[in-house]
């Protein structure tokens, strides 16, 4: 099974890593477990995301960060295709 939650680490909407929750624009009170631990790929719509979905963070994935970009490419390549 893939782990879509790792996409959160590369998302432009992620804004805080708290002691007990990872927050973002789509889920200001905490990203749901089904996204963080796998089973739901947030490139597809989630019922509670208010229309905000995963978008790559261009600042992390620019040419000056080749190792981060390589990791992102590996993560995306290993995800199941989105069926939205």
Question: What would you say this structure looks like, in words?
Answer:
- With 84 residues, this protein is an alpha+beta fold.
- The chain has one domain.
- Helix content is 19%, strand content 8%.
- It has helices at 33-36, 66-77; strands spanning 14-17, 22-24.
- Strands 1-2 form a two-stranded antiparallel ribbon.
- The radius of gyration is 12 Å and the shape is globular.
Question: What's the topology here?
Answer:
Elements (H helix, E strand, L loop, with lengths): L13 E4 L4 E3 L8 H4 L29 H12 L7
Antiparallel strand pairs: 1-2
Quaternary organisation of the protein chains: single chain
Largest sheet: 2 strands, antiparallel
The ordered string of helix (H) and strand (E) elements is: EEHH
- Percent range of helical residues: 10-25%
Q: What is the percentage of strand-forming residues?
A: 5-15%
- The end-to-end distance, rounded to whole angstroms, is 18 Å
Poorly predicted runs of 5 or more residues? none
How many domains would you count in the coordinates?
Answer: 1
- Give the integer mean of the pLDDT values: 79
Based on Cα principal axes, name the global outline. Answer: globular
* Number of separate strands: 2
Q: What would you report as the Rg, rounded to the nearest angstrom? A: 12 Å
Class per helix and strand makeup:
alpha+beta
The helix tally amounts to 2
Looking across the biggest beta sheet, what order are the strands in? 1-2
